[in-house]
C-alpha cells in the first residue's frame, strides 16, 4: 500500500512490515510455491491445509462463532491455543490489507491484529487458490448483528453509533481514509455501559499523513448511508427495537463525529489573563478519554489574544492511568469505572493521604481480584473480568437500593451470576438464524455452502476477518455464545 505522501507518514507506520503491496493494476505473477509471511511464532500455523479451499477445511479445525454477511469466504480456525480468522481473497488485496493493518496497529489504533498473509496456494492438482489474510480473533467481541439478537437495552443502537464515531475520529486523526464505513466492518467490545469499536476490514482504506476535509466528509456521509441501510435491514428482520428511528440514528453519527472532532482539533482564543482556560481545555479532553501530548500556544497577530490548539492527541487517558496503577489493560470506560471504585475504596479506608500506587495494590488484592475470581468457569472466555466487575457494581447498587442498606460484594456477585449472567447467552436458534444470513452473502467461492453436511460450519466474518463473539474452544461447537 503506497500513498502520495509516503515520506510524511509516521515512521512507525512506514517500517511496520516487510510486506509491500503492489499496485493492483500491475500485479506480478502468482508465486509458484507456498509463501507465508507471519507475525506469529505459532508453529501450528504452518501445518494447516493450505492446499484446500477455505470452505472445504475440516470440522475439527473450525470454531463456531456468530458470523455476518460477507463478500468473501471467512472461517474461524483453531490454531493450537489461538483462534484466528482466515479470509480468502486475491493476493494483491490480502497483501495490501495485511500491510495496512500492520501499520494501523503500530500506530496503536483499534483494529484487529494481523497475523499472516499466505500466497502461492495451490490445490493437490496444482490449480491456484486465492491468497489468505489471517488475523487474530478479537476476544470477547461481537459483530453488530449478534448484538441485536438478544437482551438489548433500548439505546443499544445509539451506543454502537457513539463507539463508531470515536473510532472514525481516531482513524481520521491518524490519516486513515476508510472508504467503506459501516457497522458490518466493525467489531464491538462491551466497555462498561458503552461499547468500543474495532476496525476489521481495511480493504478499501488508505493511509495518509493527513486527510482533507473532503475525504473525512465522504467517509462520514458513506457511514450515515450504510448505517441507515443496515438498521433498516435489522428492522425488517425484527431484530431492531420498534422505537428506533433508523434515519435519526444515522444522523446521530454525523453529529457525534463533528462534536468530537471539534473538541479535539478546534483552536481556542483566550485573553492573556485567561490562561487558566488551557487547563480547562485539557481536562475536557481527558474527560472524553484523550490525552494531550502537545499543545500549540501562540499570540494572535493583534497581540491581544492567545491561540491554543491541541497538536497531538491520543485516546486512552483513563486506561493508561489504570495500567500504571494496577497493571490492568482494559477499555477506557471500564478503566474509568475501576478508577472510581478505587477512589471510593481509598476514601472508605481513610487513606486519602497515602500514595495512590500503594492503595491501588491493596484494592487489587482485597476488592478486584476476589471479585473476578468468582466468574464461573463456563463464562471466563466470554466476559472480560473488568466488564464483569463493572456489571457486578451496577447490580450491587440495584440490590442496595431495593434493600435499603449496603450489600456485601460477595453476595452481589452470587446474585448477579444467578439472576443476570444467564440472560446474556445467545441461544442455538439465534445463532442458526445469524449464520443463515451470513451464508447468503458470499459470492466469490463456488464451493461455499454447496453441501453443508460434508463440511464444517465455520464462522464467516461480518465483512472481514477477525470477527466473532466470546468462545471457549473446549466447549461443544453448538454451545451458547455470549451476547449483550
Automatic annotation (TrEMBL):
Bias (Basic and acidic residues) ranges: 20-32
Xref: SUPFAM superfamilies: Protein kinase-like (PK-like) (SSF56112)
Feature: compositional bias, Gly residues: 458-471
Residues of the DUF4032 domain: 259-421
Pfam families xref list: DUF4032, Kdo
Entry coiled-coil feature ranges: none
Record-linked InterPro entries: DUF4032 (IPR025111), Kinase-like_dom_sf (IPR011009)
Stretches the record annotates as Disordered: 1-33, 448-484
Name of the protein described by the UniProt record: DUF4032 domain-containing protein
Organism: Bifidobacterium thermacidophilum
Phylogenetic lineage: Bacteria, Bacillati, Actinomycetota, Actinomycetes, Bifidobacteriales
